[in-house]
UniProtKB/TrEMBL annotation:
Keywords: Apoptosis, Cytoplasm, Membrane, Mitochondrion, Mitochondrion outer membrane
Keyword Glycosyltransferase in annotation: no
Subcellular location: Cytoplasm; Mitochondrion outer membrane
The protein's name: BH3-interacting domain death agonist
């Protein structure tokens, strides 16, 4: 998987979290919350792009108002079937982000066999008792698990990210209403 330095960018981190959470849940409420969060990410990307969009056929000329003409969706049509959340970095970047998410899921599978179900229950209970401390509860539970789990053959940065996302997914499957808040907290945690 290599260096996860690109996760300092919030959009990249959000996509990795989204792709990590995306597969294999049959829970309707979980899928509904994840879909809603995906729509928020799309809207956020469109706002952050600030309307500076390019069509595939354009040659990058500036219009008189200083903006590029057209719409970026023309550039992304070839990757839309591949990804629910297009990103202006191109298809290769999306494929790389999906690969990182898949590798993190493989690390997470090792965690799930060991202790994640219990940790997710602890985190759900702690969040229920004091929702305003969501970020602190997540950090504390990740740190506690890192002390308990032994995956010394893997890079520590990857282990921390995989463990964080595994906990987030475990809690969100148990309590889908927490998905949006935990998603945002996980993105901030991963970026720092």
């Amino acid at each position: 998987m290599g260096d996860l330095g690109f996760l300092a960018d919030q959009q990249s981190a959000a996509l990795v979290v989204y792709f990590f959470l995306q597969p294999d849940s049959k829970d309707l409420n979980y899928n509904k919350e994840l879909c809603s969060k995906g729509n928020e990410l799309i809207a956020s990307r469109e706002i952050n792009d600030n309307g500076n969009q390019v069509e595939a056929e354009d040659h990058g000329e500036l219009q008189t108002d200083g903006h590029l003409p057209g719409n970026i969706t023309g550039c992304l049509e070839d990757i839309l079937p591949l990804v629910g959340l297009p990103r202006p970095g191109g298809q290769q970047e999306v494929i790389n982000i999906q690969a990182v998410a898949q590798e993190l899921r493989e690390i997470a599978a090792q965690f799930e066999l060991q202790v994640v179900a219990r940790a997710a229950q602890n985190l759900t209970r702690n969040i229920s008792e004091s929702p305003s401390e969501l970020g602190n509860h997540l950090v504390n539970e990740v740190e506690r698990l890192l002390r308990e789990v032994s995956l010394k053959d893997l890079p520590q940065e990857q282990v921390v990210v995989a463990l964080t996302l595994t906990l987030v997914k475990g809690v969100c499957i148990q309590a889908p209403r927490l998905l949006k808040g935990l998603f945002d907290t996980a993105v901030r945690f991963i970026c720092h």
